[in-house]
Write a structure and sequence with these properties.
Blueprint: E1 4-8, H1 19-22, E2 26-30, H2 37-55
Parallel strand pairs: 1-2
């Protein structure tokens, strides 16, 4: 069985009678489904590491 999943845009509410919500082959998740406490901490740690690397003149994750 094939299906479809998508990330719902928070700013555009999905109507309760929307066919997407009734289909057994479609999964709808909130846009922030991946935002766990662990993920938030990881983003904070990465930000600090990037700032420290910048000021030590050894930048990481450089996009050219």
């Amino acid at each position: 069985m094939r299906g479809f999943a998508f990330d719902a845009e928070i700013a555009i509410p999905i109507e309760k009678d929307d066919p997407y919500l009734k289909s057994l082959r479609i999964v709808v998740t909130p846009h922030t489904a991946s935002m766990t406490e662990e993920a938030d901490q990881g983003y904070a740690d990465m930000t600090v590491s990037n700032i420290e690397a910048f000021f030590s003149e050894k930048p990481v994750r450089v996009v050219t």
